[in-house]
Structures are given as structure tokens and as C-alpha cells.
Amino acid sequence: xxxxxxxxxxxxxxxxxxxxxxxxxxxxxxxxxxxxxxxxxxxxxxxxxxxxxxxxxxxxxxxxxxxxxxxxxxxxxxxxxxxxxxxxxxxxxxxxxxxxxxxxxxxxxxxxxxxxxxxxxxxxxxxxxxxxxxxxxxxxxxxxxxxxxxxxxxxxxxxxxxxxxxxxxxxxxxxxxxxxxxxxxxxxxxxxxxxxxxxxxxxxxxxxxxxxxxxxxxxxxxxxxxxxxxxxxxxxxx
Length: 238
Description:
This protein is mostly helical. It is built from ten helices and no strands. Helix 1 (3-14) crosses helix 3 and helix 4 packs across helix 6 (122-157).
């Protein structure tokens, strides 16, 4: 395995969350490999250490590079607005037909972007896809974090709630909240239901105990004096 391939394999794992595709990562890996200073006869340990160091350095700048690329792409779009093709009057019909076909292809996923990306260069189209993938991954991570935080809050409330807590958590796992307000409303309802549940358990526990014994009854039984007949009967038994 040559050094470019070594760098690519390591970079692919470390830069996974950034959303770059394989072609882009191979280009970055090639630049990193060209800057390696290890001798050809260097040990694998030394080479791997240098590769890891250079990749870590590059990863600090990749997000900045993405933002710069986004800025350049936005400027390119501003400088290349959609225009009508008036150069060939004789081919108006064919031109209109071709333009409609291009728009139909570009609007399959997003009808609002009519004609905006049809004439963009290939590198720009790839960059748009990369940025979209990155945004989707960030949104997914944020969603997972929010869900985890909400679940932990609910679990803390229901930690001693028995079967009521189990049922409520199962329901929570199937629910989807559009925002924090919806979750807080649900959480408040659970708090009220939990209070009612605990009160019902307390009432049921008291009723099962029955009436308490009268005060001093045990002491009276312990101090009760035996009759003469009971004493004689006990003596005969011995």
C-alpha cells in the first residue's frame, strides 16, 4: 500500500463526519502524502505517526475550507444568474425544448430551484451535495442529542414510578416532538399523572392495613393473671 492510499484510509475514518465524498478525500490525501517527509526506508511506526499528525493538522482547517468554498459558490451563483438564450433566434424552439428538459431534471427533488443548478460546474454540484450531506448529519446528531436529553430528564422523574414509569417511557419512545414547548407540555402532564398515581398507591396501601389495634392491648394481655383452675390444670399437666 503506497502512502497516498495509507493517508486516504486513515483520513476516510477521521473525516467521516465532515461529509466529504471519496473523490474529495482522495484529493486531500494526495496533498497530505506529498508533504510527508519520512524517508522511504522509515519504519511503519514512524510513517503512521507522521500521517496521523498531518491528518490531525488538516482536519482543523477542513471546516474552514468548506465555509470558504460555500462563499465562493454563492458568489458564482450571483455572477451567473439564469438568463434567456437569445443568441440563436433560429433555434428558439429547440432551445426552449432543451431548457424545459434541463429544468425538469433539476427540479425532480426541489421544484423551487428551477434552472439554478443546471449550468453549474461539476465541482460546484459536488460541493453542494457535500454541504447538504454535512448539514443532514449535523441535524441528525442534534436531533439525537435532544432526544437523549429529554429521555434522561423523563427517566429521572419516573425512576421510582414502577409500572406507570415503564408504560410512560414506552409511550415516549414512540412520540415525536416538534419543539421544546411540546415536550415540556408532555412532561407537565406526566408530572400530574405521577402525582395521581402515587396518591392512589398511598391510599391503597393504607386501606390494606386495616384498623390498628387498640392502645395498650398487648400490655394488658402480657399482665393478665391466671385463675386457680388454670394453675391446677397446668400442674396436672406436668
